[in-house]
Specification:
The structure is a homodimer. By secondary structure, chain A is α/β, with parallel strands linked by helices. Chain A has 19 helices and 15 strands. The longest helix of chain A has 18 residues.
Chain lengths: ~450, ~450
């Protein structure tokens, strides 16, 4: 019997998040206060974030304990399975072993609750009664709605209007978990009113939705705080539960990855799987390749500039040292809404600068094809974001095939695509079969990889 | 630490399906050939079903081994978790322990692949190249698409037109797994053409879609066979993997159910959890209550007649001895599309007749409210079908509370409701919170239960 899934017992679920800042050779430069241009302080952050989250944003301690109340909710779906992609391996006829961490098993369908749950918990513990946030594709907004309800918090989500109209299922999930969801821009905030005044039919943007959510939180300093789902250190910290579990599960599988792959928007999914393996590179002298995968149409890591930039439209976030396409960059409307962010988190940007990680940009036709092949061989229909990681896993597996070498590949499946099926319809057209690459295509892929790696 | 999930290791996954016919005291009367009115033979069934499935339909052997090729695909998601619903228990403030078997973890999102995979396998083994089937809400059609692709079979699904139009995501899932899906009635079959001639705007029906799928299979006796997803013995046989796993997992939890609950359309979800526990009642003298839950608007078990009836519209299926509302019964358009079938399988009908199981009918307002409470306390948004089982689990838990008694409840969560969210929208309206029953409501529930149990 070939074992398919490697499931960690609940009692072995890691009880601390890992902070890569403790071990990385070069720290990122500090966040700057956008007004004073001075390094930001915990007090600056506490204006919009819960105190403990502001503390975690700046801490350099190696591990942060996961509160028991958070572990209890994690156990609804965690530990998440590590899966051997035997069906995909067979279809590719590759000597490589392909593993993936399935973060799509959460009630929300993605990795986002890994940070939403602790964010809701710390806010609740501090006496906050209401959370505001923004959401693009809707994954993060759903996750905070789910998490907030568990701690009796009201949750108000500003969802980019174009997504609100296109993705009604995401809004309905938020409502089912008791949250309110507004199409942004709204008339509820100064930034929203200004945007609607300028263009009554504006589709909205993530940067604008962030500004609205922050303004809304600032209205009520006593009872309301803002939350965000990626980019910042404390978010990536919470996501490391993924990589911590994966390390234990790869041991169960008696395997060690040669390459670890994650898709990247702001960095929460990539950082979650990558940071614990990077600890092994930094502290135990291992030499795993760590690859961040971005869409060709939003190429902050492969074609962006490394500089200070803000995270939102109106400048409420700190200035962050990051690879960025500029905070006014307008990516095209690709299916992977979660990867359409202009910049990458500070730690990830520094890692790329230092050569500790690689980046690859993949065109949408390649990622969607990879997604269909994965769905047909592994059953799970992947989220459009996750198809980016799958595409690079396939590139690596085909390379192993051409070179006739064994190789162990691990990628992070950020979520399932059950409510992103229109992306598949647009890609598939009438073409229902034959997503396995031809020999000629394999040769071309490997040639291309030889150039970029 | 309170353990949340009870996960069976893959190597302990049951390797045989259980056949209740071997142990039940009174066998159902035989199926009849609708033309001759004589008991049906294996040869009669082989005209539309794969030979091995025709054999399994009539066998009385106690266990049927699960082929290794089927086990391999099962392992994509099986063993499915048994979960302790601690969040729901807390919200209900009940002394009862509530467990559920989560069948929503399959790639399709429901229990349906438990039978789709072996059906595709046996057809493939026999040299069949194409499968036809019908689907109402789309769960079964998705499952057969997923399963068929694994064995290189073409799959053609006739989806009731009104569902086809209302549930585009289900069709898109089928396409993503490589299957063709037609809105039924089509122009491809005699039954379809006749229905369209009679009414060009007909919304279609499940009975009609079955007739189309059967006619389509009969066109090509060499290469095509028909498959169906519920009602018949071989389908329920395959579903017993659920109950077999649940027995082992309840042992892991050091608990034994006082009551086992499943929702019922044709019987595949209910039979899957119930039959192995009924073996314990019949063979080991246990006295667990086994409850089938149906919608008040499709009350075949509580208000139907026990008689011979056919399974489709045009009379291609055998005459089956069953509790039925008549094969021309038109249920109202409730959210739980999977429970809108006019009859229950022969074994289940006989069990009810013999008093070995109970039946409860639940109104939609109660099931949807139960669904929202479950989503808010356990995270998982349940399928509208599954909310029926949840509603009765809640009834039982509230009864235990009023009586101040301990009780162990187990129900089968047939699937998640991620792509049924419009049902929640229609139910929720603007009302986003407070789904926990009041004291007055609890008293009323218990009074009502005292009357019906």
């Amino acid at each position: 019997m070939k074992r398919k899934k490697f499931i960690l017992p609940e009692e072995q679920m890691p009880t601390a998040w890992y902070n890569l800042l403790a071990d990385m050779p070069n720290h990122p430069r500090p966040y700057l206060n956008p007004k004073t241009r001075q390094p930001i302080t915990e007090a600056d952050l506490q204006v919009i974030l819960a105190d403990e989250l502001a503390r975690q944003e700046l801490t350099t301690e190696c591990y942060v304990e996961i509160p028991e109340e958070v572990q209890e909710i994690y156990r609804i779906w965690r530990p998440a399975p590590l899966v051997r992609a035997v069906g995909l391996e067979k279809a590719l006829d590759t000597p490589a072993k392909i593993f993936f961490k399935n973060e799509g098993v959460s009630p929300v369908g993605s990795h986002k609750p890994n940070s939403a749950v602790p964010q809701a918990y710390y806010n609740h513990k501090q006496g906050v009664r209401r959370l505001t946030t923004e959401t693009g594709a809707g994954q993060w907004g759903s996750a905070l709605s789910f998490a907030g309800h568990h701690f009796g918090l009201d949750v108000e989500v500003f969802m980019v209007r174009v997504s609100y109209d296109q993705k009604p299922y995401r809004r309905l999930m938020m409502n089912t978990w008791g949250a309110a969801c507004h199409p942004s821009p709204t008339n509820l905030t100064p930034s929203g009113r200004a945007a609607r005044m300028a263009d009554p039919h504006t589709p909205g943007s993530l940067g604008l939705a962030i500004s609205e959510a922050v303004e809304r939180a600032l209205e009520d300093p006593e009872g309301t705080r803002y939350c965000l789902g990626s980019v910042m250190n404390h978010v990536l910290l919470h996501q490391t539960i993924t990589g911590e579990e994966a390390i234990l599960q790869m041991q169960m599988a008696d395997a060690e990855p040669d390459v670890v792959i994650g898709c990247i928007g702001g960095g929460s999914n990539f950082g979650g799987i990558a940071f614990p393996f990077l600890r092994q590179n930094f502290c135990e002298g291992k030499k795993m390749r760590i690859v961040a995968v971005e869409p060709e149409s939003c190429p902050k890591l492969t074609r962006g500039v490394f500089q200070y930039d803000i995270g939102d439209f109106s400048g409420y976030t700190p200035l962050i040292p990051m690879y960025t396409l500029g905070h006014e960059f307008q990516p095209s409307a690709i299916h992977a809404g979660g990867l359409r962010y202009h910049g990458a988190g500070a730690i990830i940007s520094q890692l790329l600068q230092d050569g500790a990680i690689e980046a690859q940009a993949v065109p949408q036709t390649e990622t969607m094809r990879a997604g269909v092949l994965f769905a047909q061989t592994e059953g799970i229909i992947p989220a459009p974001e996750s198809t980016h990681a799958i595409a690079v896993a396939i590139r690596e597996a085909l390379r192993a095939k051409i070179e006739g070498r064994e190789k162990t590949i691990l990628f992070n499946l950020s979520g399932h695509g059950t409510i992103d099926l229109y992306a598949y319809e647009q890609y598939l057209g009438g073409h229902l079969q034959d997503f396995v690459p031809t020999d000629e295509e394999i040769a071309r892929t490997v040639q291309m990889l030889d150039k970029i790696i």
